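chain below, 271 aa
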Amino acid sequence: MSRNLVLGAVLSAVFVLAALISFAWVPYDVTQMDITNKIKPPSPAHPLGTDHFGRDILSMIMVGARTSIAVALVAVGIGMGLGVPLGLAAAAKKGGWLDELIMRANDLVFAFPSLLIAIMITAVFGASAINAIIAIGIFNIPVFARLTRSGALSLWTRDFVLAARVAGKGATRISVEHILPNVTNLLIVQGTIQFSLGILAEAGLSYVGLGAQPPTPSWGRMLADSQTMVSFAPHMALFPGLAILLTVLGLNLMGDGLRDRFDPKLQRARQ
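prediction:
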């Protein structure tokens, strides 16, 4: 098994486990302020220190993992759930009006980064984790649509697809029964990558105040709160920054390992 896959899975599992544990237990209540212990460095009582409100940073990171993982997971689900059918439909109708419509719509969405989409959504509905999910999810749709279309187009000329057409199967049935199973590997790898990008996007949106709102902890907002205190309380920025770095690194390593596992040519080339 690939070392990248193992290391990535371990790093990702640590933060997923921390998020799951936080549903049942955290060292301190993240909504409880303790001004007498504010901006304390790491200590036995607070292994990662406290913030400017006296809240335990370890507890904040554990609960913040919940927010980041939930936003990224649902956003990737939206992107896959809508992008994959659109990509299959575009490939099945290559060169037709439906293919052209889907691809030009994808180009239009790509013209608006997730941050800009979030700003537009926020202007209408207000800042929240739900709106961050919608913004990131919308941006993921064309990513999966393009990937699915690209993978599907290379399969439509294969013998097993031609045999299915001779057997009388329609384009929709062929797409579901024959094309989709053969592009699943691509989607799994891309899903892992988009998941890591979703965590980064959620942190970025929360950093500028467009993501999860107080009192819900968020890694991005923890960084925003610490930016004026880095000189005398560097731990406030260090630990949430490391949480983002290690989680994204773990997911990218896992995606790299999965790509090697699904494509033996790449694995042989790296040996």
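The domain at 3-270 is CATH 1.10.3720.10 (MetI-like fold). The chain has a mean pLDDT of 90.
thats it, cya
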